Batch of 2 targets.
Target 1
Amino acid sequence: MKIGIFDSGIGGLTVLKRLLTDFPLNEYIYFGDTLNLPYGTKSLEDLEKCADKIIKFLIFEKVDIIVIACGTISSNLYDKIKDKYGVKIIDVLTPTIKFIKENNLESVGILGTPMTIKSKAFDKYALNSVSCPLFVPLIESGKVNSKECEDAVKGYLRELGDCDNIILGCTHYPLLIPVLTKYTKANLIDMGMCVSRCLDIQSGKEQKVTLYFSKVNDILKNNVKNIIGDKYEIKEKVL
Ligand code: DGL
């Protein structure tokens, strides 16, 4: 199958990585909109414009299915766009909510982007939710191991308070797991894992991965390498 995946930047690579492990023999086309990130503070109108361009590009590339590997677009726009393009579109939120329900998770806290938290999409299932505007800029600028990042993690966890389960409500946040686990014992839930267990993908014979980003620089290349290695070609493509 040919699977299209997109996000604002490198966050969706956490979803791609999971799918590559669970369904290795497929063709994957990834689009990270690094020119327009972060998505988490954009207006609904701007988010819709970004998603529209990317979905049309992936359809042009003849994908069979599109995975919105972005909590912000999933929580704000999925209902509006899921039937609009004549191609199957999957989001990260529906499978995550399914996971919460199926596992009867209680004592759930949410960390998400400002727009995801504003959407209230998780509110029914959570004790508390915290908007984390500092995380995506820190992650994208390669500062995951900085003191600044550690301080941000500590601050947001303090704000979230005690809970047994934390939904990493933005696909960038699994990249913070090594830092998060220093300061919380909660079970950290990765939306990529939730999506993967809901997908029914017929595998082919070989793997092909193409990574497109709307802005490529050395920091991005290094981030990509740290997440999924350097064997996949990175192409710059402005939509
Ligand atoms: N990784 C995305 C999300 O899951 C987008 C984050 C951003 O660009 O602010 O929300």
Note: Residues 2-91+194-236 form a domain with the Rossmann fold fold (CATH 3.40.50.1860).
Target 2
Amino acid sequence: MSVKFPKTVSIIAGGRIIDPASGIDAVGDVYLKGGVIDKIELKKKALKTTAEMDAERSIADARGLIVAPGFIDVHVHLREPGREDEETIESGARAAAAGGFTSVCCMPNTDPPIDDQETVQFVIDQARDAACRVYPIGAITQGQRGEFLTEIGDMVAAGAVGISEDGKSVASAEVQRRAMEYVRMFDIPVISHCEDAALANNGVMNEGTVSTLLGMSGQPGAAEEIMVARDIQLAAFTGARLHIAHVSTAGSVKLIKRGKRDGVRVTGEAAPHHFSLIDRMIAESFNSNLRVNPPLRTEKDRKAVIAALADGTLDCIATDHAPHSVEEKDNEFDKAPPGMVGLETALGLVGKVLVVGGFLGWPRAIELLSTNPAKIVKVPGGTLAEGAPADITVFNPDEEWTVAPEKFFSLSHNSPFAGWSLTGRVKMTICRGKVTHIDE
Ligand code: DOR
């Protein structure tokens, strides 16, 4: 029987190699050695037959598949420390590998929060044998209380690659200004969850026609946009590097476009759910897995987010993977906590909504999933150049599959995509030269 994916791999043969960082999009073989990319041979015809593939068990047959630099997710929530029933660093990394990710950045809203050197070190220690690289994001303020800055330098020294108050904004512009002044010393980004708490007013969904019809409390798009505008202004003022998390409105897209045009060092991400789902779907099902922050917006917003991913206004796709327990999610819509898991459906949604939808091609999708996120948080990977780490994702761009959350590697299953048919399936993930996932 043919061994399509051996447990150890020294050659990935005959796939379509797409590496935007080195300008490669061609059929060829990728050679791995000692945890790095040894060389790439393009349009090589030698490794052709299945018999030849079988003869050497460390050759992975990638014919008909795409071979890409490993995906990098700059925005996940692993619930360790604190809620290990929902996700651990180990289980989250396993889910990441299944989704084609070789690196993830984990947000600090754990319990206790990742707000000092010891907790950053704890995450790094816990991740030592994990199925992907795990980079902590440190909190901006102590206890995420919005008052006093954390010891940013200590956290960076321990391995934090950015700071964020994710889950909320830093309400005080003065505190946010100081954070931005500090990060300039380390050239790490401030990752901003943009939500004016007063204006959002605990709204459980987008404020608009649908929330009015349903009689649900809404938060307006302006609650996000006000903070996007403030933080772009502060980035211009301080010269800091700003990354806007989970952009969800057409207005935020416009502000980021203008900031970039003005030379502000601002980048932005979009989550798969914001380019795949809209608020109207809540009225159809009241599925509490559709509750997320920022909330699902309108079709106009969704289209603007997609256009921004295609035209370069937004720089990367990040899942905002947010595991929650069945007990908490199996609740009325307004009582359930916001968030959905996303690591294991990201590629399939990119394939179905963005690529099959005709908005962008696989090379741009790989830029958004790997090349650009590597640059934003300055981590190894994001390229298949010779000498780069052997962090690689092999996927079938045409394979259709049905989402079955009970089969997820994540400890949590709060996905609104259950039963959806997606396009694009991860077949093999390799991190540091080791196979971390095979789709069998
Ligand atoms: O929906 C969300 N869930 N948005 C956030 O900003 C936080 C996240 C979580 O931690 O559950």
Note: The first helix runs from residue 50 to 55.
